[in-house]
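ok trying again, last paste got cut off:
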Amino acid sequence: MSSATPTPSRNPRKKLLGFVTSRSGDKSVKVTIPFKRPHPQYHKVINRKTVVHVHDEKNEAKIGDRVEIMETRPLSRLKRWRILSIVERAVRATGEAISEADVAAQVPTKTVKPSVEQPASQPASNP
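nice, full thing came through this time. structure:
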């Protein structure tokens, strides 16, 4: 049974780019979409953001990733968007614990003077 009428195509859905800011649960992330608007009276450009709850079916988005999201049917009380693709992965540094002594050695202060080392060829004289 083939019908002569073609199947209707889907509506065009909104697509946005944003950054993953939180992994709130299994298959769920929060995506922040930054944008700029001029102030209505003073005309200064103001940074604004929209935070949306997004469905991540494969659980592969991490915090800091830039993702493309698409509007979809309601999936839960708050989720109305889903991840289409991960556009750019976040740069992740290896986590190392550092001590206060390491920080103090790297950060120069006004009270600590650098130590002056004597050359190895001349021994220090004792009076």
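cool. DSSP finds one helix and five strands in the chain. The beta strands are 15-25, 28-38, 45-55, 66-71, 81-88.
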